[in-house]
Amino acid sequence: MKKAGILMGSDSDLPALEPLFKRLKEFGIPYEAHVMSAHRTPARACEFASNARKNGFGVVIAAAGKAAHLAGVVAAHTTLPVIGIPVKNSLDGLDALLSTVQMPAGIPVATVAIDGADNAGILAAQILSLADASIAEKLEKFKVDMTEQVMAKDKKLQEKLQSI
Ligand code: RP5
To answer: What is the pTM of this model?
Structure first.
């Protein structure tokens, strides 16, 4: 199975990424995670991205806050799919969102919501499921469970409305 590569611009981003690690564990996806910055360690970030495919990665997830160029720099140096997570650090995360999502044509970054680590994990699983049936099966179950949870909530709502 291909690995997920996770890069965060700083260790201060780690708390925002907990849901991502939980999802990858849930879907049984192996990963490597590193602190690497587009600004503070640009050579290391470029080297990681340039070698990611040959090093067994199938997707790279890059999380950063403020002027968040990490996902874009990674995408510039690999042909693997890159998921960007804008981390809320300043300006309510809008600075990171725009820095991550507003990529020029030719260098796409699949950007999730501000602090959208959970969706980044699900999206990474969906990408890797193209070549792995066990992940695809887990994703099916995930959808069924989610549907059941929402139906249970709807049932409770209907009961509540009866008593108003
Ligand atoms: C970004 O700058 C990091 O991704 C982090 O969100 C932000 C602040 O980094 P620290 O000053 O906390 O190391 O590069």
So the answer is: 0.96
In a domain, 159, yes or no: no
pLDDT at residue 128 in the model:
98
CB 20 within 8 A of CB 61: yes
pLDDT digits (tens, 9 = 90+) for 84-128: 999 999 999 999 999 999 999 999 999 999 999 999 999 999 999
- Tell me, using a 6 A CB cutoff, whether residue 90 lines ligand 1: no
- The contacts of residue 128 (CB under 8 Å, 6+ apart) are 1, 2, 4, 29, 58, 59, 135
Q: How many domains does the chain have?
A: 1
Decide: 74 and 62 in contact? Cβ < 8 Å.
yes
Has residue 149 been placed in a domain? no
The answer as to whether 55 is a domain residue is yes
Cα(108)–Cα(28) distance, integer angstroms: 26
Q: In the prediction, which pLDDT does 26 show? A: 96
Q: How confident is the model at residue 14, as a pLDDT?
A: 98
In angstroms, what is the span from residue 35 Cα to ligand 1's centroid?
Answer: 10
Give, for ligand 1, the residue of 11, 37, 89, 99 to mutate: max count of ligand atoms closer than 8 Å to Cβ. Answer: 89
Examine residue 164 and state whether it is found in any structural domain, yes or no. Answer: no
Q: Which atom of ligand 1 is nearest to the CA of 38?
A: 14
Q: Is 66 in the pocket of ligand 1 (CB under 6 A)?
A: yes
